[in-house]
Design goal:
Order of helices and strands: HEEEHEHEHEHEEH
Structural class: alpha+beta
Strand order of the largest sheet: 1-2-3-5-4-7-8-6
Low-confidence stretches: 1-6
Number of helices: 6
Largest sheet: 8 strands, antiparallel
Radius of gyration: 14 Å
CATH architecture: 2-Layer Sandwich
Strand content: 15-25%
CATH topology: HIT family, subunit A
CATH class: Alpha Beta
Number of strands: 8
Helix content: 25-40%
Shape: globular
Distance between the termini: 37 Å
Mean pLDDT: 77
């Protein structure tokens, strides 16, 4: 069960997909069709705090069941960094690859062969980061993003949709 830090509006959204550790809801402010949020059932500061392998395992099945396979995943920093935009918990955006593959960020980031290796890199970081890439496939992690706008991911989606 989520802690009381999760905004009530998200708790009211029907869970579209879930397993023992995570659930998916439609984003309450979608910026593209097929925009979902991946949320942990227990409080985590970031997805890298989840047991190793659990995020990749979840994402191997969820996008298919959601009808957005292949999917892209985006996570910006730790929960403490996202509180300024009303999300005091770890969450990641899932979007269809048709949009995700066109999203560009100013920070190039280091590329990893898969999401789990990218999450391993995040586990070693002390500062803020941006993680993005294919839910099943290559992923990137950019560091030192504190200077970038708070709603970086949403802004990137809007540019792609335009």
């Amino acid at each position: 069960m989520m802690t009381s830090t999760v905004p009530l509006r998200i708790l009211e959204e029907p869970r579209i997909y879930e397993d023992a550790l995570f659930f998916v809801v439609k984003d309450i402010e979608p910026v593209v069709e097929g925009h979902f949020l991946l949320i942990s059932k227990t409080y985590l500061q970031c997805l890298a705090d989840a047991p190793r392998g659990s995020v990749s395992e979840f994402l191997a099945a969820a996008p298919v069941d959601l009808g957005i396979s292949p999917a892209w995943i985006f996570e910006r920093g730790r929960a403490s960094f996202c509180t300024s935009v009303g999300a005091p918990f770890a969450h990641a955006h899932l979007i269809p690859a048709v949009f995700g593959s066109r999203v560009r960020f100013q920070a190039a980031g280091n590329q990893y062969s898969d999401l789990e290796r990218a999450l391993d890199a995040v586990r070693q970081l002390a500062g803020e980061y941006l993680l993005w890439g294919q839910a099943v496939g290559t992923a990137r992690v950019a560091v030192d993003i504190e200077h970038q706008q708070k709603r970086l991911i949403r802004s990137a989606f809007v540019e792609v949709r335009s």
